[in-house]
Every structure is written in C-alpha cells, then in structure tokens.
Amino acid sequence: MRTITLNEQQQRAVEILTRLQAGALDVATAGELLGVNDRQVCRRRAAFRQEGMAAVVHGNCDRQPANRTAAALQERIVALAGADGKYHDLNVCHLHEVLAQEEQIVVGRSTLDRLLKQAGLRQPARRPRSCTGAAALRRPAEGMLVQIDSSPFAWLEARGAQADLIGAIDDATGKVLFLHFRPSEDQVGYLLLLRGIAQCYGLPMSIYHDRHTILRSPKQATLEEQLAGQPPMSQVQRVMAELGIESIAAYSPQAKERIERLWNTLQDRLTKELRLAGIDDLAPANAFLPGFLDRYNARFAKPARDPQSAWVPLPADLDMPYYFATRETRTVRRDHCISFAGQLLQLLPGPKDPSLVGQRVSVHTVPEGDLYVYHDKRRIAHQAVAPAPPAPLTPAAQPTDAAQPAAPPNNPPKRTTKQRAWLFGQP
Question: In a structure prediction context, what are the per-residue pLDDT tens digits for the chain, which is 427 residues long?
C-alpha cells in the first residue's frame, strides 16, 4: 500500500476538491480558491475521482532531476575540498574555477556552494558591513590612471623567503597590467614595471602611488635646482617626468583602493595557486605570473566606459636604455676614461666626434645591470679597462754597521717667543 504525505497546500487542495465533488462548491468558486480557471478545475476533479489524494501530488515529486550531480562526483568534490584535500582552503569562486581548469569538473557555482555547505566544509558568508563613504568613480578610459604599489607577503608560504610583489592595475577596467616578484621593494622593480607597461600597452596619462622614497624624493631642493625651477626627483620619478607621465602621490592607503583590494585578492588566490604548482623560488614564480595574469584578467577585468584608449604608444625608434634606467653623471678625464662603480670605463668616441675631455657624461644602468654611456642623448661606445698598477715602492736604504747614524746634538733647538709664551703662560 502506497503512503502519501501531503503538505499544507496539497491538503487544502484535497479539501476543496472533496467539497466540489460533494456539491458544496461550484466550479467557479473552486477555481477561485485553487487559483486556476474552470477548465483546470474540471480536469483536477476528474483526476481526483480516479486517483484520489495522489492526484494533488505533482508527478515529478519522487523523480530524480535529470541534471542532478552524480553521487560519485559529489564524493570526489568533497574529497578534494575536504580537510585533507589539496583544495581545502580555496573559497567557492576560486574552487569553482580550479576544478574546471585542473580537474575537468564542471558544476554550477551555486551547486558547488550548496554541496560544500551540506558537507560542512564551508560556512555561510558573513553579511558585509555597510559602507558609509561614496565609492571612488573609475576613470572613463583605459590608460588614464594606473595605480602601482608593492606588497610584502609570504607569497611562497613556508617554502621560501618572504618577497615583495610589485604590481600595477588600470583604474578604468580593473585589469592587472604588471606583476613581478622582487626580494624587496626597490627601484629596479619599479623600472621593470614602467618598462613592461610601456612595451605592452604604452604610456599612461598618470600614475598613482604612495610616498615611498623610491617614488618620491624626500630631499630639499639645492640652490641650483631652485634657480632652475627643478624639484629634487628620485630615479623613478625622473623617468616618469621625462616620459610625460603625471606622478600623483597618495596620502593614505585607502586612497589607492583598487590596488589595495587587489593585494587582498592575490594574497588569497595567487598564494594558493603557487602552492598547487609546487613553486618554491622567485624565478619560477615570475615565470608563472603571465599565465595567471591572463586568467585573472579574463575573469575580473571590466570594459571601460569609453572604448577609446588613452594609452600613448611608444615611438618605434625610442632608445629604451636612455629612459628606463638609473642615471649618474661623471666627468671625463684627460685619458677619455671615467670611473664608475669601482671600474674604469674607456670611452670610444667616433673619429669625427668632438673631444669629451672635461665634459659631463651620464652613465645609465638598466634593470638587468648593463651600462650605457651618454653625452646629452648621444650614446658613446665604451669598454672596461684594467686600472694601471701602482708604481712599486723603493725600499729605503738601511744603515750599515760601518756607517752609524749621527748622534743628536746636545744643544736643544731654540724656542720662539710664541712657543715660550704658550708653554709658560708668559704674555
């Protein structure tokens, strides 16, 4: 004998159909109570006469849905996301992407969230706190404003030393433009950032950054700089000025909200993906970043309101080592040599070039460590030479037994009037 369990709505429908069949209700009134038209009332009454209370139960009530996730697949997902699984600490959105990419498991994000919560592996998300401040408006076009920063963090967890991730994000689209690991925040990393963005996208209109001394010089202007109307600049600040990029210094981390939120996301996502890839050193970590950037931007980047980009393309003949390098000046000696970083550089000007003796030249060091010498904007060939060895010291003549040194005279030297006054306090 079949047992039928009815909910409140179904019990109410049975009562209405029973009264309809007994003649206590007419078809119009029953249809109004059931919320259907007269034709449907007649159909339900006929089914109720034939099947009884089973007629009010939907036909799909005991059937398994066609798109139901298989039990074996559910067990596999729970094993991968469980406490002993390799994806135990991934959030639902990240896990949804990694399962499709690495395990070829394609399920709906809401289905995955329900499975994990039913298994007790994830907790319901906390309700976000209400934001009282107004959100900062994005720039309308890509390339108008780029935010840059560095984040020190245990990116390799316990597998390697702590490092700094230097990055840049476009304000209009949220696209991550550059990421690079460095042992610490330094000007080489920011030069790599500027050069990488310029080569891939072009020059932005402005760059928003913090007040680190690498990006903003804390020195006071010298008299010469004041007379020339030139403020003191750091090496990176000078590169931005020469390329026509506006440098904007923020007064608080909250002002750089786009890139600060990026660090929160990457410290969760990137750290775990580096662990899953088995990376324990900065060199393979930097090699891993381009593929990660493509996946991240495909997932999170948004189109700009203005489709016309504001990037300024680099000229085809731009001398990259002249701009994207640190710069120091030296004075050329009479032998056409300069001293730099403990080595002697012999300048090799062309046969028709003017003499550089006494002239000031600039030595440019690119991030890879290569040196370039310029006089104004003209590159000068050079080569490292070994410094001349010092002249040997001539040993002093030693006295022989036959020639003894003369004895000092018995009479002491006469003192001057000033010496006597100093010794005996005489005026």
Answer: 567 777 888 888 888 888 888 888 888 998 888 888 989 889 888 888 888 888 788 777 767 677 788 888 888 998 998 888 889 889 889 999 999 988 899 888 898 898 888 888 887 767 666 655 666 789 999 999 999 999 999 999 999 999 999 999 999 999 999 999 999 999 999 999 999 999 999 999 999 999 999 998 888 777 776 777 778 899 999 999 999 999 999 988 888 889 999 999 999 999 999 999 999 999 999 999 999 999 999 999 999 999 999 999 999 999 999 999 999 999 999 999 999 999 999 999 888 888 899 999 999 999 999 999 999 999 999 999 887 676 666 665 555 555 555 555 555 555 555 444 444 444 4
Contact present, 206 and 168 (Cβ < 8 Å): no
Name the burial class of residue 221, with classes exposed (0-12), middle (13-18) and buried (19+) by CB atoms within 10 angstroms of its CB. middle
- Of 3.40.50.11310, 3.40.50.720, 3.30.365.10, 3.30.420.10, the CATH number of 145-220+229-300 is 3.30.420.10
Is the Cα torsion angle 200, 203, 206, 207 positive or negative in sign? positive
Q: What predicted TM-score, i.e. pTM, was given to this entire model? A: 0.75
Secondary structure of residue 349 in the 3-state scheme: coil
Question: Two tokens at 213?
Answer: 């001394």
Cβ atoms < 10 Å from Cβ of 284 = 13
What are the start-end ranges of the H helices in 201-281? Answer: 223-228, 235-242, 257-276
Contact 207, 241 (CB under 8 A): no
Using CA atoms, how far apart are residues 49 and 59, in angstroms rounded to an integer? Answer: 17
Q: How far is CA 425 from CA 319, 413, 415, in A?
A: 73, 20, 14
Helix axes 71-81, 109-118, angle to 10 degrees: 70
CA R_g for the chain? 40
